[in-house]
């Protein structure tokens, strides 16, 4: 077993494991400061912040020989008997030097900088810098330049780590960013007429260790220390990137990628990153309505003169019992499970409908598809399937139906009169799929329940119009397109008047107390073989259901 | 004038010395023929190795040893790069060779490529040398016509193409990996090592990078033999088995406050004073010398008292200089201000720093701004200690940068302040007696353009 010595601690590496000095020191609990190095990008060793003393230990005698000069830890591979010294006077002096150098031309405009509070220049200077500013140079004034539609550059805050340049070359592949000029006049820039415009552009802001690259969506919206961070899953597409939802007082301000080597590595796409605005959209539905009288159906001559239905606002408390008893009077029920629901929600709704009608239709909701999968240089994929949980809901549907009926199948059953009551679940950012045509086909239903975030033709004619929750308000599990299950908890509370689907179903099923996703997931894992692996603890990076399923099948 | 009979410069000054006809009439390409007929590539490497030839580009790395670092039995291609991006201030020996005796260089390149099994050589020449470029291109064309280049050279199983590539005026392109990056069409940011160019160089293939003068020496070794080469210069130190010695003739560039500036050939080991007195005709205007740069500005400074230092690969290091460098001696007379010297030096390195590594990018910039302020009469005594601290901490020797540019930036600072501290202190006390620091704007200097 290769052994590496870090500040006197012996660290054992697995055979064939390739780590650099920074990574191996992290194992020993030692943080080596660094700007230019990033695990997802090539090594350039140019910021020189990670300078340490290195050497080798003689395998036989145990004698240690150190190199006379400092070496960058990012560039030094940890091999058997490598020695790293990260806290010597020489190292401390070198770090202070680099910190001093970086601040020579820096505007030090922390009070108005978006990065303040999560800035490596601040943190490292506090930890490794020196108290006195010895340079009497007057720093440049603050200059700002647009890099593209999403990203702006505060030119003089840059420390020239070139992470962003390497990202656009190696990960997104479009190479928009580059270094111009030479020496201390160097700046990041784009070629005239070729702005930073790719679907991964927002990542350069995360990569920037200082406040140079700013996210225009987040710019001047919130100080970072006010925000609470909640681990979440992006519901933008079926890749299901691990993200952090950052909010303050139930308002989401930004989404950031969360490292998950099984799914998204360190990245996320702009579609997902900026796809949270619907959560706080002014058109969101926030109160339940009940249809009190149905207007007469329009005749062939006077289609446009339909007399509108009349609706009345109700309280949730009064609503549930009435809805439940009305459903119980119905012969045949259908539940349309949206792929935006969590596994738990889908299961609870299906279970509820089956508890009323043992033969209730359980069908898959509309799966939104836009364009084609987009694969980037190193394999990061933005999928055409714009929902987070098709796989999970499919398996729930299959469990109840023995097959997976599409929502069109259910629609046909509704139209034929086979079904008298239907419950459409939503959660769609855009409800453009249920148009007038779908609404017309559902005309014949005795009872129509629609729960969604925004109005739609189907919603408008529903007997029960229920406001639904957004992704940041849900608690439960999603299964991505590669059968990986992630569990998340809610990050913000839903707007006043909105109840999450899960809590609603939980109450309808008469389950005690408040909704607890873990309890439901345990039940699902016990009942549905596909979810077997979810019975154990779910790590933040999720569990692979397929691997466990294969193992379970062979056992 | 001294007695040493020039070898590398033997043809220089003759009419039409740059043509193949004149070159062949003085024994040109006989060395190549000898090597191709009598030696296998391994033996050719061995020949250069046993001559103890050290690279003339500045670092003085043994050339044969460098060639032997190439991977054995590599399926190829292996590349040879010739560094003709001669940008070290005060240096012009490569230019003399390329302009007046290009065939001597090309013969060495062919021998070198034969030895290293390289089938393509790139000659990276700075754009400021249009005459060298034209002469080299003419010489290469002549060689193709005569069969010295191209397929099956002189009937041997060895083919070679030489391409000239003109750089776009940056000092950093003289650093071997910066040169390689630039040759590949990228920004000339020196690469991190390892891998060294011998393993992964141009287009990620094994590459040797050599200087123009080194190749001229290879020509002469092939023609005159190893024994001739080792009869010149300073033998290796018998007490240090790792010292390869300083053998062979060397082209010294003499410039500055001197009566007869020029490029002179002398055996390695000649002292700076001999060079000034015997070749340069002494310091100009009857004045005394004050200091001299031993081998290009990045090597530091010799004081007048140190003029007896032998200019071989080991000599300048013994008196606190960085090394022999390019052996470009720039003489300063007694009226020269060391503040002006250092200001000019800092200005050069701040302008030429590639900006990749933080300590070099900011250190050179900071030291220039301090020198500007000192010169403008707003210096403080503590600035000298700050300058020394910058000088001591930047560079490849303390390990804080990727390439050696900042060592070159540090040495003039360290030498000038340590060797002439009295002058700096006196100047600061005289121009800024209160020691107050006013943040008054310093007069702007004309913008530098291109490499220098």
Tell me the number of helical segments of chain B per DSSP (H or I, 4 or more residues long). Answer: 17
User: Element order, helices and strands of chain B?
Assistant: HHHHEHHEHEHEHHEEEEHEEHEHHHHH
Number of domains of chain A: 3
**pLDDT < 50 stretches of chain A:** none
How much of the sequence lies in strands of chain A comes to 15-25%
Please give the most extensive interface between any two protein chains, plus how many residues each contributes: A-B, 36 and 33 residues
Q: Quickly count the domains of chain B.
A: 3
Please report the total strand number of chain A as a whole number: 25
Looking across the biggest beta sheet of chain A, what order are the strands in? 15-14-22-21-20-16-17
Written overview of the protein:
By secondary structure, chain A is α+β, with helices and mostly antiparallel strands. Chain A has three domains: 3-87, Ubiquitin-like (UB roll); 106-120 and 129-280, Alpha-Beta Plaits, CATH 3.30.70.20; 289-297 and 307-554, Rossmann fold (3-Layer(aba) Sandwich), CATH 3.40.50. Chain A is built from 15 helices and 25 strands. In chain A, the strands form seven sheets. In chain A, strands 15-14-22-21-20-16-17 form a seven-stranded mixed beta sheet, sandwiched between helices. In chain A, a hairpin with a 6-residue loop joins β3 (51-57) and β4. The longest helix of chain A is centred in the N-terminal third of the chain and has 16 residues, at 89-104. Chain A starts with a strand and ends with a helix. The model of chain A has no long low-confidence stretch (mean pLDDT 92). In chain B, the strands form three sheets. Chain B has a five-stranded mixed beta sheet with strand order 8-7-11-9-10, with helices on one face. In chain B, strands 3-2-1-4 form a four-stranded parallel beta sheet, with helices on both faces. Chain B has 17 helices and eleven strands. Chain B has three domains: 20-231, 3-Layer(aba) Sandwich (Rossmann fold), CATH 3.40.50.11540; 246-333, Ubiquitin-like (UB roll) (Roll); 338-431, de novo design (two linked rop proteins) (Up-down Bundle), CATH 1.20.1440.230. Chain B is an alpha/beta fold. Helix content of chain B is 41%, strand content 12%. In chain B, a hairpin with an 8-residue loop joins β9 and β10 (302-303). Chain B has helices spanning 20-25, 30-38, 41-50, 63-68, 93-100, 102-116, 130-146, 176-183, 212-224, 226-230, 272-279, 315-318, 338-352, 358-378, 381-393, 405-419, 421-431, and strands at residues 79-84, 120-125, 161-166, 207-211, 233-234, 246-247, 249-256, 262-267, 289-293, 302-303, 328-333. The model of chain B has no long low-confidence stretch (mean pLDDT 93). Chain A binds chain B through residues 43-49, 51, 67, 69-72, 75, 93-94, 97-98, 101-102, 104-105, 134-138, 159-160, 179, 181-186, and chain B through 170, 187, 189, 192, 350-359, 361-366, 369, 373, 386, 393, 396-402, 437, 439.
């Amino acid at each position: 077993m290769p052994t590496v010595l870090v500040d006197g601690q012996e660290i054992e590496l697995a055979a064939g494991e390739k780590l650099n000095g920074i990574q191996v020191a992290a194992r020993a609990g030692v943080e080596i400061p660094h700007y230019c190095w990033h695990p997802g990008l090539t090594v350039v060793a140019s910021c020189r912040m990670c300078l340490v003393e290195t050497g080798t230990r003689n395998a036989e005698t145990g004698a240690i020989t150190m190199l006379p000069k400092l070496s960058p830890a990012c560039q030094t591979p940890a091999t058997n008997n490598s020695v790293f010294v990260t806290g010597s006077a020489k190292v401390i002096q070198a770090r202070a030097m680099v910190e001093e150098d970086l601040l020579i031309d820096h505007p030090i405009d922390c009070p108005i900088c978006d990065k303040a509070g999560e800035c490596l220049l601040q943190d490292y200077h506090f930890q490794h810098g020196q108290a006195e500013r010895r340079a009497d140079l007057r720093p440049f004034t603050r200059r700002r330049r647009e890099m593209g539609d999403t990203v702006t550059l505060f030119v003089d805050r840059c420390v020239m780590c070139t992470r962003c340049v390497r990202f656009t070359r190696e990960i997104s592949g479009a190479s928009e960013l580059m270094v111009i000029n030479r020496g201390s006049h160097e700046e990041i820039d784009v070629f005239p007429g070729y702005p930073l415009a790719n679907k991964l552009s927002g990542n350069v802001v995360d990569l920037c260790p200082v406040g140079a690259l700013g996210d225009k969506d987040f710019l001047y919206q919130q100080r970072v220390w006010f925000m609470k961070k909640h681990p979440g899953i992006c519901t933008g597409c079926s890749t299901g990137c691990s993200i952090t939802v950052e909010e303050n007082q139930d308002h989401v301000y930004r989404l950031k990628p969360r490292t998950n080597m099984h799914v998204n590595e360190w990245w996320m796409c702009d579609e997902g990153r900026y796809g949270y605005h619907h959560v706080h959209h002014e058109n969101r539905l926030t109160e339940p309505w009940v249809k009190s009288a149905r207007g007469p159906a329009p005749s062939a001559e006077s289609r446009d003169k339909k007399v509108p239905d009349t609706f009345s606002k109700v309280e949730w408390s009064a609503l549930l019992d009435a809805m439940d008893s009305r459903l119980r009077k119905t012969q045949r029920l259908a539940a349309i499970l949206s792929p935006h629901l969590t596994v738990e929600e889908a299961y609870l709704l299906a279970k509820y409908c089956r508890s009323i009608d043992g033969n209730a239709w359980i069908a898959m909701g509309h799966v939104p598809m836009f364009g084609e999968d987009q694969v980037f240089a190193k394999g990061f994929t933005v999928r055409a399937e714009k929902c987070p949980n098709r796989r999970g809901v499919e398996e729930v549907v299959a469990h109840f139906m023995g097959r997976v009926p599409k929502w069109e199948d259910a629609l046909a059953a509704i139209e034929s009169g086979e079904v008298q009551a239907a419950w459409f679940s939503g959660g769609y950012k855009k409800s453009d799929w249920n148009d007038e045509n779908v609404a017309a086909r559902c005309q014949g239903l005795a009872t129509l329940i629609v729960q969604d975030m925004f109005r739609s033709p189907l919603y408008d004619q529903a007997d029960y119009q229920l406001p639904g929750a957004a992704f940041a308000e849900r608690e439960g599990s999603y299964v991505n397109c590669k059968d990986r299950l992630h569990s998340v908890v809610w990050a913000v509370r839903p707007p006043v008047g909105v109840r999450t689907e899960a809590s609603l179903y939980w109450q309808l099923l008469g389950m005690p107390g408040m909704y607890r996703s873990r309890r439901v997931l345990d039940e699902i894992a016990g009942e549905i073989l596909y979810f077997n692996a979810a019975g154990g603890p779910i790590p933040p990076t999720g569990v692979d259901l397929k691997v466990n399923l294969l193992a379970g099948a062979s056992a | 004038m001294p007695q040493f009979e020039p070898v590398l410069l033997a043809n220089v000054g003759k009419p039409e010395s740059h043509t193949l006809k004149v070159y062949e009439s003085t024994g040109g390409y006989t060395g190549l023929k000898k090597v191709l007929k009598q030696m296998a590539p391994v033996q050719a490497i061995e020949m250069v190795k046993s001559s103890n030839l050290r690279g003339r580009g500045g670092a003085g790395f043994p050339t044969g040893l460098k060639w032997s670092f190439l991977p054995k039995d590599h399926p190829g291609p292996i590349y040879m790069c010739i560094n003709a991006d001669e940008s070290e201030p005060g240096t012009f020996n490569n230019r003399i060779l390329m302009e007046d005796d290009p065939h001597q260089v090309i013969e060495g390149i062919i021998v070198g490529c034969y030895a290293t099994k390289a089938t393509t050589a790139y000659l990276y020449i700075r754009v400021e040398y249009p005459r060298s470029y034209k002469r080299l291109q003419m010489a290469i064309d002549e060689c193709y016509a005569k069969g010295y280049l191209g397929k099956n050279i002189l009937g041997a199983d060895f083919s070679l193409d030489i391409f000239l590539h003109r750089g776009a005026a940056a000092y950093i392109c003289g650093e071997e990996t910066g040169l390689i990056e630039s040759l590949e069409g990228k920004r000339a940011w020196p690469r991190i090592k390892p891998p060294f160019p011998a393993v992964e160089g141009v287009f990620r293939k094994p590459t040797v990078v050599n200087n123009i003068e080194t190749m001229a020496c290879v020509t002469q070794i092939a023609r005159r033999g190893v024994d001739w080469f080792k009869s010149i210069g300073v033998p290796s130190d018998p007490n240090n088995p790792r010292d390869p010695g300083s053998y062979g003739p060397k082209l010294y560039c003499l410039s500055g406050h001197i009566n007869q500036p020029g490029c002179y050939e002398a055996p390695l080991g000649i002292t700076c004073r001999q060079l000034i007195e015997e070749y340069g005709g002494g310091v100009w205007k009857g004045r005394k010398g004050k200091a001299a740069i031993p081998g290009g500005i990045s090597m530091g400074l010799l004081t007048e008292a140190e003029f007896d230092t032998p200019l071989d690969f080991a000599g300048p290091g013994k008196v606190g200089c960085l090394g022999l460098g390019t052996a470009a001696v720039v003489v300063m007379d007694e009226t020269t201000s060391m503040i002006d010297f250092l200001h000019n030096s800092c200005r050069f390195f701040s302008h030429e720093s590639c900006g990749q590594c933080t300590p070099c990018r900011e250190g050179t910039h900071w030291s220039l701004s301090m020198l500007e302020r000192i010169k403008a009469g707003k210096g403080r005594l503590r600035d000298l200690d700050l300058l020394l601290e910058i000088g001591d901490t930047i560079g490849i020797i303390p390990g804080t940068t990727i390439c050696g540019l900042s060592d070159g930036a540090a040495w003039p600072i360290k030498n000038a302040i340590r060797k002439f501290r009295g002058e700096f202190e006196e100047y600061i006390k005289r121009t800024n007696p209160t020691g107050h620091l006013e943040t008054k704007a310093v007069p702007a200097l004309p913008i530098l353009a291109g490499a220098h």
